[in-house]
Hints:
By secondary structure, the chain is of the alpha+beta class. The protein has two domains: 30-180, no CATH class; 203-317, no CATH class. The chain is 39% helix and 25% strand. Strands 4-5-6-7-3-2-1-8-9-10-12-11 form a twelve-stranded antiparallel β-sheet. Strand 2 (87-96) and strand 3 form a beta hairpin. It comes from Acidicapsa dinghuensis.
Amino acid sequence: MKAGKTLLFKVAPVALIAASMPGFAAQLSSDARTAIPHDVQQMVVIDYRIMQNSPTAMQLRGQVMPPELKQLEDALRKFGLDENADVEQLAFVLYRTGKSSDNLETVGIAQGQFPVDDVLANLKKQRIKPTLWRTNKIYPMGKTGMSVVFVDESTLVFGSSGSVKTAMDVRDGLAPGLLSNGQVMDSMRSVDNEPLWSVLDEKGTQTMMKQVLGEAGSVADFDTVKKRMVASYYTMDFQHGVKFDMSVVTGDNFAAATVSSLLNAAILYKKMSGTDIEKQALADTSISSDAGRLDVHFASSDDQFNTILKSPMFQSMVR
């Protein structure tokens, strides 16, 4: 996986594309946190339990579900798990490997109440044997190319064989992990009580904002301030319509104000070329900067957002 990518969800001036439900905080357990590598570029955490109870969330999820999630659901079913009943929370982590920031890998963590004994008995019946990584038993997930390890009855780690082994190295104390990444941990404290949240480091934030700004991101002002974007985080929920909030931390007022101006310019351009529905969505987006931070807020009704999902602008954002 190459750099220049943000994980799972793309963003645009209208809103961050995500799927979530209200009422439950999507906090990572201690077991999950201790298996996450140190060099996180982006992490997305979703409360998965009641997503199917919201037509809007399910429609959105169907349009933007990433390949990793589709593969996971297929693999879980073949693995003997019911993703709708057994999985309560999913976390996807995009992290850097080696010395180059161009080398990125993805690892996933699922939390829930898993019938581990039944699953292992079924695997044994099928003569599927694990690969030992020290004391960790890593199982292949069918023909998906993915592997999985049960950390305990409530946590499983999945991904490529290499990413799962990396996660186990972190958990076993043989490699640095998330808990020693002060920047990402600070961002998490701002959002991890929300039903859906994501945090991005400096590189992830710069990549995301470049995608959001589009042509506006090519101007000299962006090159001037992009290195001052040190972190970002966002949340989204469907409790009363659709709400999205994102903050970009720049560390100084000038950089935050400059990015705010660029983002407002990008929205103005979209308003001139968009449909009536798109123009209304952009009108419902507010952008402000204060104390070295850029804040973006978007809100709409369920009906309005369902219409936005069908718009050309939305379709271009999730290609």
